[in-house]
Design a protein that fits this description.
The structure is a homodimer of 145-residue chains.
Chain A (H helix, E strand, L loop, with lengths): L1 E12 L3 H4 L2 H14 L4 E8 L5 E7 L2 E8 L4 E8 L6 H11 L4 E12 L8 E6 L2 E6 L1 E2 L5
Antiparallel strand pairs in A: 1-5, 1-6, 2-3, 3-4, 4-5, 6-7, 7-8
């Protein structure tokens, strides 16, 4: 089994809410995280929403990083989507945990764009649980023409 | 159980590779998909990579949409991350399937930022399989101070 992309879903709970509402710090932290992962940053956009909460997206040559913060819940959701083998997403994740002051966090690793040894594309994703990848079939979509 | 975010992982296989390498069309399609979902588009960025492949990110007031295309594999990975109840992500997904000409596609629905009835944050995500949500515990991260 091969995969075109690796996707990390990072759940950051019990964070420092002051950091989660600080646009400038969130921007610095996510961009530094991208660099720690050895990613090539192409462009980034960060927005503060009312009454609070920040969304940030970073285009990297190897796919993307995103963050959404809920300071009122001390929670941030981070995604790191990568392709290729040269990145070190775990370094980015450790850095984010530390800088957002998250006391309770977890990361789920997925494989996207799966194909068999014969090169056939698969309509599932793979999810790492207990150290092993397991195929998860999503709802198959029907195209009505 | 409540959740702050809903996240759709959309696997689009056997797409029209001409569309997947057309920056302008991918941009139009993803922005129209966001509107079909009833999302409020804040900003968007699209990039063409060499030799081919497009990455697009759309910041919406309700979180984000992303796309990465691999025209050489007729594959695109789309993410739709939403918060709130007002969006219609399924309309966006159907539209994407149709416009990218995907003959084989699937969607996995996740819940992010889970909390218990008592309001305690959980360190898992929930994944919809067979019509029901199942908790998936990621690798718990240790913070070393």
């Amino acid at each position: 089994m091969g995969a075109l992309g690796t996707h990390f879903l990072v759940e950051l709970n019990e964070c420092n809410s002051e950091v989660l509402r600080d646009l400038k710090r969130i921007e610095e932290i996510l961009l530094t995280a991208a660099k720690k992962a050895n990613a090539t940053v192409v462009e980034s956009r960060f927005h503060q929403f009312s009454p609070f909460g920040i969304s940030g997206l970073v285009v990297i040559a190897e796919s993307h990083l995103s963050i959404h913060t809920w300071p009122e819940h001390n929670y941030a959701a981070v995604d790191i989507f990568t392709c290729g083998e040269s990145l070190k997403p775990h370094l980015a994740i450790s850095y984010l945990v530390e800088k957002l002051g998250s006391l309770k966090s977890s990361v789920v690793e997925l494989k996207r764009g799966l194909f068999s040894k014969e090169g056939t594309v698969l309509d599932s994703i793979a999810l790492k649980e207990g150290g092993r990848f397991r195929h998860v079939s999503g709802k198959i979509l029907q195209v009505v023409h």
